Amino acid sequence: MAHAASTVALCVVPLASPLRLDLYLHQLFPHLSRRQIPELFASGDIIVNGRRAKKSERVSGKEDMVLGGQACRAVFARQLPANPHLSLTIAYQDTALFVVDKPAFTATLALRFDETDTLANALLARFPELVHVGGVRDAGLLQRLDRDTSGLVLGAHTQAIWQALQAQMQAGGIEKGYLALVAGEVKPTSGTIDWALSGRSKHSQRVTVNSQSHGSYVTAWRVDRRYCAYTLLDVTIRQGFRHQIRAHLAAMGHPIVGDRRYNGPVLPGLTRHFLHAHCLSFRHPVTARAVCIKSQLPADLRQPLSRIKEDL
After folding, report:
1. pTM above 0.85?
2. Where are the domains of the chain?
3. Active site residue 146
4. What's the CATH code, domain 90-170?
5. Among 45, 101, 138, 146, which one carries the catalytic annotation?
6. What pLDDT sits at residue 200?
7. In this predicted structure, which of 74-78, 88-92, 221-225 has the lowest mean pLDDT?
8. Are 176 and 279 in contact, with CB atoms under 8 Å apart?
9. Which of 121-135, 139-153, 217-231, 252-266 is least confident?
């Protein structure tokens, strides 16, 4: 995203299907209200492919867009505050992108502009330019981990790289690997789950799994190590849905240890669910080379794991 005092230029990322421009802008800049967006179109400050845009027109990807005047001011009217007091571990970085190793008990993204203790707040303190990368609260990040899940999160230093990685992710080109300790003995050595997922129930806050229907979100797994009463799985996904791994594994009868929401068993010494994003594999958007970043299990997972016996 090129940003100057009075204009901001961006390229629409490739979309799975055409989307109304007003809905696309609301997704990209969620702090803009549905009442505010039509006013920006009426001002004439939204230009697509060199012409004044209409809110009802559809975009599909790679359109050039310029937001000027009132639209530009509205986009950057609010910014997420930086917090230099939060710890930040960079697992990989170059001029185009970065990978952060998120600790457990830290939210990835802020839901409100007054939040100060998320991974995004920490990134803005290290890289202030990220305030203009991705959505207004993204700080360049392309994915989100649950608060209690630790591990690798991918981000971009510029809007062009963010959009390229976003397109790669939507196409299934980014593989995310997790280590999950689950209840019971998982007898096959590998498998996949593609059961349909739907939004969380208001009462249980669990994602609903329909084992009688196939969905577009696939969870692949293989046995990494067997323990008495537990199995350590290496799980991979390409396109993620909220709680996808947690819900899929619970639905197959092997909930993640420590995951109280999905009835996972308690393990002495474990203070959260046993899920760690340990690997990210993708094609570098600049060099086109294959990149694979890995993260070791953190101490709060290693220690309780070391106290249970392997099933030899």
Report:
1. no
2. 2-75, 90-170, 175-284
3. yes
4. 3.30.2350.10
5. 146
6. 62
7. 74-78
8. yes
9. 121-135
